[in-house]
Amino acid sequence: MKHPLKRPSKRRTITAAATAALLLLPLTACGSSAEAGDGSTVTVTVGYQSKTINTVTAGTLLRSLGYFEKQLDALGDGVTYKVNWQDYATGAPITAQMTAGKIDIGSMGDFPLLINAARGKQLGKPTHLVSVTGYNLRGGLNTIVTAPDSELTSLKDLKGKKVSTSVGSAADGTLVRALQRAGIDPVDGIEKLNQQPAVGASALSAGSADALSQFVAWPGLLAFQGKAKALYDGAQLDLPTFHGVTAREDFAKKRPAVLEAFLKAQAEATAYLDEHPVAAAESVAKATGLPAEVVYLYNGAHGISTFDPTVKPQLVAALKEDVSVLKAAKLTGDIDVDAFVDDRYVKRALGASYAERLTATPPPAASEVWPKGATETRTFTTPAGLLAHVAGHKDGIRAAYVPDATTGTLWFADRAVWVADGENLLPFVAPATARAYVDAHGGARVVTYADALELAS
Q: Which residues form the signal peptide (predicted)?
């Protein structure tokens, strides 16, 4: 058995000391009367999605830590600030409230962000992407799943089937692109059911949907609960997916110091998540009702999502490619992505560290075990090493995670598709990628999880 390694700090691009230093940088006050020390009270309204857990550094986790309120108190401009946190299930109502002038700052996924941009321009209430929360450079935040007893094993099997998704979401974008690559018309080749995630999950369980394409954390949650199995790993597209923060243009211009305070607080919450991934997962789980094991799958030390506020060029390029999908669905027209992106405020908030963070990339995911009762996880150099440990500690494991051998997408070890190739034991998220590996490697074979444990031990 491979010896476990000490868990490395997650994808850190600056040291803890540097993080602390940047958070103490002075904020630039704006010139409005409310921020000039006249004793006014200003309410800042933040829209977030508690269960869309790749936005936690701008929502659930940030709210629980109180960092935004502390940053506002530190402004010292004579204004009393109150934060009104509003929780929503999706990005659409946040956009509606923003364009109505009722939400100042919001967070949502990449496709909803584009709709946010389009609606804002259409209604003369422009918004801007000001920072990023969680991202995956290959697209692993979205997954297509089927029922546990489904006989479907590949995307080609979806032809003529009922597939639930949320039209206009990133998960819908993944479905459309994946079907196109499989040679299936995404409009006429399937019967698409436009449903909210919870409705789609129920439809899958009831048998009224053959498959479900959804965003974090639904695929992982259903797999963890034994209510679904993966059919397609969104990272197979090798196209970035992400969540970000959008702000009303008029709000940003009127209160730039407040927006910068929010982005400093987001950076502080990101540093906390990196330093305390288990505690952060437990905190988010408590606030959302999601299992902490599922939160950790996405937000953990080697999770599917990487958190960093910088607006990376790869993500902006992905947004531009996403526009065509929304246009084809007649959800938007042309969108000027370059005009929508405004990273001036986050650059000021992060200071000198911005350039370094902008070019940083996450290291490859690693196999990881979360022991019962532990406040830290254990990392292994190989999936086989993890399996050997699990085999010897079956009653002491809270969760075990392994990266897909092809895409690197983290998945639950007991929900992965395992392949034995000589002495190597390789995990895959989806059966089709496992089969592709077997077909390309003579002697390799698909094995059950129980068999993989036995082979490892």
A: 1-36
Domains in the chain: boundaries: 16-135+241-359, 142-237, 367-456
Phi, psi torsion values for 121, nearest 5 degrees: -70, -40
Between CA 175 and CA 181 the distance in angstroms is: 10
DSSP string, 160-188: T-EEEE-TTSHHHHHHHHHHHHTT--TTT
Measure the CA–CA gap between 191 and 207, rounded to whole angstroms. 14
- pTM tops 0.85: yes
24 pLDDT above the threshold of 60: no
| Closest to 411 in 3D by CA, of 224, 198, 175, 165 | 224
Q: What is the tens place of the pLDDT at every residue in 213-249?
A: 999 999 999 999 999 999 999 999 999 999 999 999 9
Topology given in CATH for the domain delimited by 142-237: D-Maltodextrin-Binding Protein; domain 2 (3.40.190)
Return d(Cα 370, Cα 397) in angstroms, integer. Answer: 6
